[in-house]
């Protein structure tokens, strides 16, 4: 199983419940296809560098997971079919990126504990 990281931007017109529901939908899609979710971060409403579909802000979400390569196609098809998703990007992490992601997670968890 490879380690992947996906970031997707949801339209800013969603309520907080709708945003959480959409993130949960994609997490369920991953776990139903045999993926193991390692980390989930919701970065909240952020200003984008340029307007997409006449929107200048969006809800940013990051999911880090381990899965077989065939799961990626299913996930990205789900992103394309969902009108709430403005943009998405999925990246396979090599061993150095995976180590960096783990350090980042540990640093974030220490901040949350303090």
Model description:
There is one protein chain. With 114 residues, the chain is of the alpha+beta class. The protein is 43% helix and 42% strand. The protein has three helices and four strands, in the order E-H-E-E-H-E-H. The protein has helices spanning 16-32, 69-81, 95-113, and strands at residues 2-10, 36-52, 55-67, 85-93. It has a four-stranded antiparallel sheet. A hairpin with a 2-residue loop joins strand 2 (36-52) and strand 3 (55-67). The longest helix is centred in the C-terminal third of the chain and has 19 residues, at 95-113. The radius of gyration is 14 Å and the shape is globular. The mean pLDDT is 92.
Key terms:
114 residues; alpha+beta; four-stranded antiparallel β-sheet; 3 helices; 43% helix
Précis, in short:
The chain is of the alpha+beta class. Helix content is 43%, strand content 42%.
Shape: globular
Strand fraction: 35-45%
Note the main sheet.
4 strands, antiparallel
Strand order of the largest sheet: 2-3-1-4
Number of H- or I-type helical stretches: 3
Structural class of the secondary structure composition?
Answer: alpha+beta
Quaternary state of this entry equals single chain
- Mean of all residue-level pLDDT scores: 92
Evaluate the radius of gyration: 14 Å
**Uncertain regions spanning at least 5 consecutive residues:** none
The arrangement of helices and strands along the chain is: EHEEHEH
Layout: helices, strands, pairs:
Layout: E1 2-10, H1 16-32, E2 36-52, E3 55-67, H2 69-81, E4 85-93, H3 95-113
Antiparallel strand pairs: 1-3, 1-4, 2-3
